[in-house]
Amino acid sequence: MFATILCGTCDSSVVLQNIAPASALAYHQVRHAPSRIEAVGIVIPARNQSDTIARCILSIFAAHNYSGWRNSLWIVVVADACTDTTAKVARDAIGAFGEVLEVAARSTKTAHQIGASTVMEHFRHIPRHALLLASTEAGAELCRDWIDIKLQCSHTPA
């Protein structure tokens, strides 16, 4: 497979370890388990979501900071047929940690495919097995351990 793609499926035992650890120390140990993932790319398809896109992006930054993993992070917002200021708001929120593409696909699936291709091109120097490619909705405000859970789900023993 070209990339590790996680869009919400995962072994439930891994999720339970992250959600309900026995102690704070156990949580810390689970969060920093070895991973072969070197880069995290996140795709956000969006249409007319100028009121929520900044909160979504900021929650991704918060999750990345919280995770303690020091992976490269690249966010691609695909503003699909927007008639509001979604693209501008997203550009302001992302800064130097991603890009915003304006397309007229009028299809969430196509917007996602465009975003995934863009992430993979950005990380072309990273081996595909070492790239975590995830996606979220533009209206989502992610929990602070969202990236931890995604990375833990992608964990494969050395």
Describe this structure in words.
- There is one protein chain.
- The radius of gyration is 16 Å and the shape is globular.
- The chain has helices spanning 12-19, 24-31, 53-67, 86-94, 108-122, 146-154, and strands at residues 4-6, 39-46, 72-80, 98-103, 131-135.
- It has a 5-stranded parallel beta sheet with strand order 1-5-2-3-4, sandwiched between helices.
- The chain contains 6 helices and 5 strands.
- The protein is α/β, with parallel strands linked by helices.
- Helices cover 41% and strands 20% of the residues.
Helix content: 40-55%
What value does the average pLDDT take? 82
Number of helices: 6
User: Roughly what fraction of the amino acids lie in strands?
Assistant: 15-25%
Order of helices and strands: EHHEHEHEHEH
Radius of gyration from CA coordinates: 16 Å
Gap from first CA to last CA: 18 Å
Brief account:
Helix content is 41%, strand content 20%. By secondary structure, it is an alpha/beta fold. The longest helix is centred in the middle third of the chain and has 15 residues, at 53-67.
Task: Write a concise keyword list for the protein shown above.
five-stranded parallel sheet; 41% helix; 158 residues
Give the SSE layout.
Elements: E1 4-6, H1 12-19, H2 24-31, E2 39-46, H3 53-67, E3 72-80, H4 86-94, E4 98-103, H5 108-122, E5 131-135, H6 146-154
Parallel strand pairs: 1-5, 2-3, 2-5, 3-4
Helix pairs in contact: 3-4
